[in-house]
Design a protein that fits this description.
By secondary structure, this protein is mainly β. The protein has a single domain, classed as YhcH/YjgK/YiaL (Jelly Rolls). Helix content is 8%, strand content 52%. The strands form three sheets. It has a six-stranded antiparallel beta sheet, covered by helices on one side. A three-stranded antiparallel beta sheet has the order 4-8-7, with no helix packed on it. Strands 9-6-11 form a three-stranded antiparallel beta sheet, with no helix packed on it. The chain starts with a strand and ends with a strand.
């Protein structure tokens, strides 16, 4: 997992061309005015899902195998639980079509606060529990950029 501000995204361009494409899209898109929905950046290799939702008190952990998540907070803030997938047990088996499995964390929970202008980058080994309210339910606008894992 990586947490940083979008203004520093160029530091991570060398990780992969797909990650660079995702960050470039974030930096060059009017995110404050973008409508919720799916946006194709590079066919099925890089795409974005813009969301507006209410944070919640709890959620399941999730993990992906084919895609890295770049979760960027446009407005609002939330907490995200994060742990290594080896600390978890599967509660809902992996769905290949949706590239997701749901998990239960067996260790003490650790949270990252995601504020406006910041991103969390989750690799396939990062089980994560996004959308958690930071003490009170909030409306947030967030984009999740799905980045295909390069071989």
């Amino acid at each position: 997992m990586i947490k940083d501000k979008l203004v520093n995204a160029n530091v991570y361009y060398g990780l992969s061309d797909n990650i660079k494409a995702g960050f470039e899209w974030l930096k060059n898109t009017d995110l404050k005015n973008i409508e919720p929905g799916k946006y194709i950046i590079d066919s099925d290799k890089v795409w974005a899902n813009v969301q507006i939702y209410e944070t919640k008190t709890d959620a399941d952990y999730e993990a992906h195998r084919k895609y890295i998540d770049i979760q960027y907070m446009i407005t609002g803030n939330e907490l995200a639980g994060v742990t290594d997938i080896s600390n978890c047990e599967t509660t809902v088996e992996y769905n290949k079509d949706n590239d997701i499995e749901f998990l239960q964390n067996n260790n003490e929970e650790e949270y990252q606060k995601l504020n406006e202008g910041e991103f969390l980058l989750f690799y396939p080994h990062d089980a994560h529990k996004p959308s958690i309210d930071p003490g009170v339910c909030k409306t947030v606008k967030k984009v999740v950029v799905k980045v295909f894992v390069d071989d």
